[in-house]
Structure formats: C-alpha cells, structure tokens
Write a structure and sequence with these properties.
Number of helices of chain A: 11
CATH superfamily of the largest domain in chain A: P-loop containing nucleotide triphosphate hydrolases
Structural class of chain B: mainly alpha
Shape of chain B: globular
Order of helices and strands of chain B: HHHHHHEEHHHHHHHHHHH
CATH topology of the largest domain in chain A: Rossmann fold
Number of strands of chain A: 10
Radius of gyration of chain B: 23 Å
Number of domains of chain B: 2
CATH class of the largest domain in chain A: Alpha Beta
Helix content of chain A: 40-55%
Strand order of the largest sheet of chain A: 6-7-8-3-9-10
Number of helices of chain B: 17
Shape of chain A: globular
CATH class of the largest domain in chain B: Mainly Alpha
Distance between the termini of chain A: 35 Å
Largest interface: A-B, 52 and 36 residues
Largest sheet of chain A: 6 strands, mixed
Helix content of chain B: over 70%
CATH architecture of the largest domain in chain A: 3-Layer(aba) Sandwich
Radius of gyration of chain A: 19 Å
CATH topology of the largest domain in chain B: ABC transporter involved in vitamin B12 uptake, BtuC
Number of strands of chain B: 2
Structural class of chain A: alpha/beta
Oligomer: heterodimer
Strand content of chain A: 15-25%
Number of domains of chain A: 2
Strand content of chain B: under 5%
Largest sheet of chain B: 2 strands, antiparallel
Chain lengths: 256, 366
C-alpha cells in the first residue's frame, strides 16, 4: 500500500469539506476520486499533497505519517502533483519549467553554481537531459524552447505533468487533468497516464469527465458531501445505486 | 545562431573599447567621480534585482546592507588597519551573514509587511551608526578611509579607481549572469511566477528567498566597500531613506528582472541630476516627473522598451527579418535560408512560408 488516509477530515470554519475519509491506494494503480461539485475531491487531494493541513486524521505515505508536512517536503518524499488551473512558470521556457522540477533532486550550493564547480556542472547537465527526457515521454519535446503562454491548453497540461514527473514521484496526484481538453486530447492523456503507471508511478486523479475516468482508472473512490460513499472498480461504481443517486439527484436506489 | 554570434563579438569589442575610453572623455574630476559612483550603483542594483526583480519581493533592505558593507570596510581599514582587499572580503562575509540572518524571519511575510520590516531594518542600521558613536564615529562618520590598494598598486586617482571598479562591476555582473542562467535563477523566477507551484515542485521557497536575499546583501556589501574606499569618508547621512528609494527607482527605470536593466538604471539615475542642473530649483520637479512618466509609459523600464523597439522595428529593418509573433521569445532564424529566399525574390514572409521552425511548431498545435 503506497497511500492510506485514516479518518481524514478537513473543515473550513463550520463547513466540513472532507469528513472522516478512509482510503487505501495500492502501489501501481490508477485511482480516480469522483463526486459531484463541492463533494470535497480537490480538498482531499490538497490534504494529501500538503497544500492543506488536515483538521484531524492521518495521511500515511509508504507507511509514514505525513499529514500536515509542507508541500516541498512531500514532493521530496515522492508525491508529485498538478493543479486544476494549470500553474506554469510563465517567464521560463517549457524546458526550464521542467528543469525546475529537477531542482529538488540536485545538491550543488549557490557557491558551487557561481564558481562553476564540477558537481554543479554535472547536475546542470543532468537536469537538462532528464527534463528533456520527460518532455519526450509526454510527446512535447518539440515545444521545449517556447514560452508556456504560446502553447495550447492541452500542451500546457502535458508540460505540467512532465514537470511533476521530473520530481521523480512515486505517487502522482492529478487535479482534473482532462478539464478543458477535447475528447481526442483526453484520450491521448489517458494513454499517457497508463504509460506513467506502467513506468512505476501510482496515480491518483480527481476528474469530472466520466468517459475519461471509466477508461483510465483501476479503482474509483466516490465522494459526496465530503464522505466516501462507494469504492470499487469502474464497473462496480457504475452499478452502485448510491453513486447513481448522487449523480442523478433522484432516489433511484429506493425504486430499485 | 551563427549570425547572432557574429554580431555579438564586434559588439562586445565596441563596448569594451567605449568603457576603457570613457573616463578619458570626462572633462572634470567631478564627472569621473560620477562614473565611479555609477559603477557602485551598478553593483548594488544588479544585486537588488535578485530579490526584488527576480523573486518579486519588494525589499527596502538593500540600503541597510550597503551601509553595513561601507562601515565594515571603513572601520577595518581605519581603526583596524586592514588592507583594502581583506576589508572587501570581510564586507562580503558580514553582509552575506547578516542578509541570511535578517532574511530568515523577514521573508516569511510579504507585500506591504515585507516593505515595512525591511525598511525598519535599514533605519535600525542607520540609527546604530548614528548612536554608537564610540565605534562608528557617530553622526560625524568615518574619515580618512584609505583608497583601494592591492599590494604595491594604489588606486588613488579617479581614473585608476574607475578601472578597478570597472573590473569589480564586471565580475559582479558575471556572477549575477551565472546565477540568473542556472538553477537558482530559474528557482527565483519560478517563485515569482507561482510560489505554490514552486513549493509543489519541491523547492523550499523560504530557503531560496533567503538565498536571494543574502546574495543581494553581498552585492550591496561590495558596493559599500567601493563607496567607502573611493569617497574616503562616510557618514550616516548617506544611508537615509532617500538612498533606498533611489535604488528602487534605478531598478524600476532601468527595467526590473534584467541585469541590463539594473545597469542602465544605475547609470541613468546617477547622471540625470547632473543633466538637469540647468533647471536649477525646478530640477527636483523635473526629476520626479521623469521618473513618474517612465514608470507609467515604459513598463519594463528603459531596457524593456529598447528590447521591444529592437525586436519590433530596428531588427527587422536591419536584418530584414519579420518582427516576432506574440509569445515566441528567443527564436533564431536560419540566415542562409533567408538569404536564399531573398535572392529568389518576392517578399520574405516566414509565417506563411513555414520556414521558421518556431512558427511551424505553433502551427501544428491540435
């Protein structure tokens, strides 16, 4: 088991956005977290990646309790993530964006940098070649010298994922990766995600696009009003009356 | 790429020649003095650019570090009897250390709070200099600071100091350029563009901000050493709030976020008051107005404006290449291909011919 949340709760004032969620994610699975708007999916993701400090409960990453650690520490432990509204470093080129993702895996100090000592030079070359490799992996290496502002939304999404992969995550969190993509782009993304999983990275994604979710995930966790209401394979979730009820809003379960 | 290099080398030779001849063109010692002053500000503002231009944290502490660097050199060279170069190293160490120590608590706050905290720091430094009379010379300052000397070389004329300072400024610019084009420089810009995203990329943003702050402080420390040893006299009056505002104005007018901007700003604002002497009592008014106008009409400063002018109108006319499209920075053109097509006749329109790789790539977007 790579990630476990135990009774994870996050409240903002009187509102409990995530309510005692227990979730277990196995190594090398693609896990989707779905649920209607405001069901606490993004909040859950933010608690796992350290952006929010959980109100109570625990987040265990590879057996170690990490709830409330700063995001940069979690990234160094091996949790990478992307954002719902893509956050690029707009004054850096695509390649430089991904190279920033390598920064946390380098050790040279500022003095070594200024003097151009061997370790620094070796690391700088490694940052460049590794960043390029991840851009190639995501199929956007030809855009490496462009600024993010001149890329399409879908391309920026790919750069953002390449940048997260450059931090060498064991667990990759994707917040609505297919949002704003065309169905063709979403299909490409789905095959990239499978490739990422096959390369040894566990993926947790929050997503609204059901076709995308059903196609890409191994297991699905369904949230409603901050509580986990179902969990299982895509087929199981699709057949679950509580899931249908919360998505259609009716009392389908009662009639069934 | 080939042509860019072929214009770069003669350009550099031209600039070097100009810099060497410059003091010989100045008619009075006073103007040569200003030249040295401009180089001091170049070092200070290039350093200031790291924290305020690159990382985007508006700091008012640069003048405090400038004062610490100047006093360290002044006291070590007078009462301490240290040689100039040893005092320079001491100024670097002291300001770097103080920069880190002050940066750790202050950089947790940002925006107007950071402005207040750093301004308070600079004021405290000045007040200590005024009130700790037994050590710092109090309000009357430190006098008879020796001019720079390395072994048997004494830099005691304005012109010789200019050449020493020119080398020092170039070394500091080189250091800044190295930092700017490698991983720390990228991390600085990443924090400015999105602190949360930088954090999630595994960057310890507080640590990197402290690095930028300490680095800025070191540059101010070097500037302080240059100031103390070339003016031979310092007093707390030099390090008032006006100095802080001047350093900030230099960065904004030159163009924040760029080394060239910092250099340009330092020279412009050192010489502007002299060029406005004719206006006599109206000079402060004109000076202020010019600063306001530049800030409003030239976002990105003078250097930002020149760059846009170069890319949009001078370069296309000079080399007959089209102005770059929006968002495609740093493109290179195949000069030979361009030449072949200009011989073949007809208008050169790379965008439609598809000859420019960057445009071509943008075209095949989904």
């Amino acid at each position: 088991m790579i990630l476990e949340t135990v009774e994870l709760t996050k409240s903002f004032g009187g509102l409990t956005a995530v309510n005692a969620v227990d979730m277990e994610v196995q190594e090398l699975e693609v896990r989707a977290i779905i649920g209607p708007n405001g069901s606490g999916k993004s909040t859950l993701l933010n608690c796992i990646s350290g952006v929010y400090k959980p109100t109570s409960g625990a987040v265990k990453f590879m057996g170690e309790s990490v709830g409330g650690s700063a995001p940069f520490k979690l990234t160094r432990k091996g949790i990478g993530r992307t954002f719902q509204n893509i956050r690029m470093f707009n004054s850096l080129t695509v390649l430089q964006n991904v190279m920033v993702g390598r920064h946390c895996r380098t050790e040279a100090t500022l003095v070594e940098d200024i003097l151009g000592l061997p370790r620094f030079r070796r690391e700088e070359a490694e940052m460049r070649s590794t960043a390029l490799r991840f851009l190639e992996f995501m199929g956007i290496a030809d855009k490496k010298d462009m600024l993010p502002g001149s890329l399409s939304y879908g391309q920026r999404r790919m750069v953002e994922i390449a940048r997260a992969l450059a931090t060498e995550p064991k667990l990759l969190l994707l917040d609505e990766p297919a949002a704003g993509l065309s169905q063709t782009e979403a299909n490409e993304l789905a095959s990239e995600i499978v490739k990422i999983r096959d390369s040894g990275v566990t993926v947790i994604l929050v997503e609204h696009n059901m076709r995308f979710v059903m196609g890409v995930s191994d297991r699905i966790t369904v949230l409603d009003f901050g509580k986990k209401i179902a969990e299982g394979t895509p087929a199981e979730c699709r057949a679950n009356p509580r899931v249908i009820e919360c998505y259609l809003g009716g009392k389908v379960g009662d009639r069934a | 790429m080939g042509r860019r290099r072929s214009t770069l080398i003669p350009g550099l030779i031209l600039v070097a020649a100009a810099l060497i001849v410059l003091p010989l063109l100045m008619t009075t010692d006073y103007w040569r003095q200003l030249l040295n002053q401009a180089l001091i500000y170049v070092v200070i503002v290039v350093g200031y650019n790291f924290v305020t231009g690159d990382v985007g944290q508006l700091s008012m502490a640069q003048q405090g570090f400038f004062a610490i660097g100047a006093y360290t050199t002044a006291l070590l060279c007078t009462t301490g009897g240290w040689p100039w170069w040893a005092a320079l190293i001491a100024s670097i160490c002291v300001t770097g250390f103080v920069g880190a120590v002050v940066g750790i608590p202050t950089l947790r706050v940002r925006g107007q709070y950071l402005i207040m905290v750093t301004m308070a720091f600079s004021e405290i430094v000045r007040l200590v200099a005024v009130n700790w009379g037994g050590f710092t010379g109090g309000a009357s300052g430190v006098t008879k600071i020796p001019s720079p000397s390395i072994g048997a070389w004494h830099f005691d004329t304005k012109t010789s100091i200019y050449y020493l300072f020119l080398v020092m400024a170039l070394v500091m610019i080189l250091v800044a350029w190295r930092v700017r084009t490698t991983k720390y420089g990228r991390a600085f810009l990443a924090i400015r563009d999105g602190e949360l995203a930088a954090d999630v990329m595994g960057l310890n943003t507080t640590y990197i901000k402290v690095v930028a702050f300490a680095l800025s402080a070191v540059f101010a420390g070097v500037g302080g050493n240059m100031f103390a040893s070339s003016f031979n006299y310092i007093s707390p009056d030099t390090f008032g709030l006006g100095q802080t505002v001047l350093i900030l104005a230099m960065l904004l007018i030159g163009g924040e976020g760029s080394i060239a901007g910092a250099v340009a700003g330092a020279f412009i604002l050192t010489y502007l008051p002299e060029l406005l002497r004719f206006a006599q009592s109206y000079y402060m008014f004109i000076y202020g107005l010019l600063i306001v106008l530049i800030t409003i009409f030239l976002p990105g400063g003078v250097v930002g404006y020149v760059r846009r002018l170069w890319a949009d109108s001078i370069r296309p006319r000079l080399f007959r290449t089209p102005p770059p499209g929006p968002g495609t920075g740093g493109r290179s053109f195949d000069a030979q291909d361009l030449f072949a097509r200009s011989v073949a006749g007809g208008p050169i329109k790379l965008d439609t011919d598809g000859g420019d790789p960057a445009v071509e790539r943008a075209g095949d977007a989904t």
